[in-house]
């Protein structure tokens, strides 16, 4: 895959939310690998939030992109959800969903009934998130939360491993003592495609992810690895991991 590699401010300008959804969430025969990764995340999210272990008042979903699938299980366990993203165009897609605008997909559960995973009353709003700042939500006044959920986001937003470690510390700082951080990471990423444009992805090993979260003050409760990778036409990576951690009660 040749061509310009978008990072930083160019990344913020060039990322197209609609193309991202078409590339990774079309559910057709050409996206078998992408569908397997989605199923891996959905399975782990369901097991994590349906167990009763992770429940509370407020969950912060950081870096959701233009998607809402990650909230299918979480919305049953938390009274309120705060979403924040580092790209302006991603919250616009989520706002369309909240407003029930035409062309926005609903989700079908096991019962076959179509449902929206979060009610308007559960969503406090869509905030600006910057993973490269020590206070990732900036001036927004948000009390410490019970859980931070971030999937497939930091490896796209951080330019090196030191920045990834710092971003992890920033997310942990949003948690109450004893709160949980839940994350999924595409491992050994080189880059990924959105439409015809190539975007930077940070190379991370599973051990690097676990160590960064431990150094940020969390205990790793479980880390599940799958060798499934994205289609090479869409993304160069090797495997994915899903991690559940708990912030020290004394932090």
UniProtKB/TrEMBL annotation:
Gene3D superfamilies (alphabetical): Vaccinia Virus protein VP39 (3.40.50.150)
Entry annotated with the keyword Transferase: yes
GO molecular function, one term: amine N-methyltransferase activity
Signal peptide coordinates: none
Keyword check for S-adenosyl-L-methionine: yes
GO biological process, one term: methylation
UniProt cross-references to InterPro entries, sorted A to Z: NNMT_TEMT_trans, SAM-dependent_MTases_sf
Region (Disordered): 107-133
Pfam families in the record: NNMT_PNMT_TEMT (PF01234)
GO CC annotations, alphabetized: cytosol
Entry superkingdom: Eukaryota
The entry's keywords: Methyltransferase, S-adenosyl-L-methionine, Transferase
Protein family per UniProt: Belongs to the class I-like SAM-binding methyltransferase superfamily. NNMT/PNMT/TEMT family.
PANTHER family on file: INDOLETHYLAMINE N-METHYLTRANSFERASE, NNMT/PNMT/TEMT FAMILY MEMBER
Protein name per the record: Indolethylamine N-methyltransferase
The organism of origin for this protein: Monodon monoceros
């Amino acid at each position: 895959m040749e061509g310009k590699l978008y990072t930083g401010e160019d990344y913020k300008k060039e990322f197209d939310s609609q193309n991202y959804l078409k590339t990774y969430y079309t559910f057709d025969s050409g996206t078998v690998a992408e569908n397997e990764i989605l199923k891996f995340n959905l399975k782990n999210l369901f097991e994590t939030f349906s167990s009763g272990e992770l429940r509370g008042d407020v969950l912060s979903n950081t870096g959701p992109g233009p998607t809402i699938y990650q909230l299918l299980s979480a919305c049953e366990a938390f009274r309120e959800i705060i979403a924040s993203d580092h790209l302006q165009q991603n919250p616009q897609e989520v706002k369309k969903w909240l407003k029930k605008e035409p062309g926005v997909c609903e989700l079908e559960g096991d019962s076959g009934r179509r449902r929206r995973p979060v009610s308007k009353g559960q969503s406090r709003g869509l905030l600006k998130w910057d993973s490269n700042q020590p206070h990732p939500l900036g001036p927004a006044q948000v009390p410490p939360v019970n859980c931070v959920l971030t999937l497939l986001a930091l490896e796209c937003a951080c330019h090196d491993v030191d920045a990834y470690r710092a971003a992890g510390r920033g997310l942990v700082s949003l948690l109450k003592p004893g709160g949980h951080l839940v994350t999924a990471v595409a491992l050994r990423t080189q880059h990924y495609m959105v439409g015809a444009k190539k975007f930077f992805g940070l190379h991370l090993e599973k051990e690097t992810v676990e160590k960064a979260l431990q150094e940020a003050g969390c205990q790793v409760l479980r880390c599940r690895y799958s060798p499934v990778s994205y289609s090479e036409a869409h993304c160069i990576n090797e495997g994915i991991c899903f991690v559940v951690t708990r912030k020290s009660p004394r932090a």
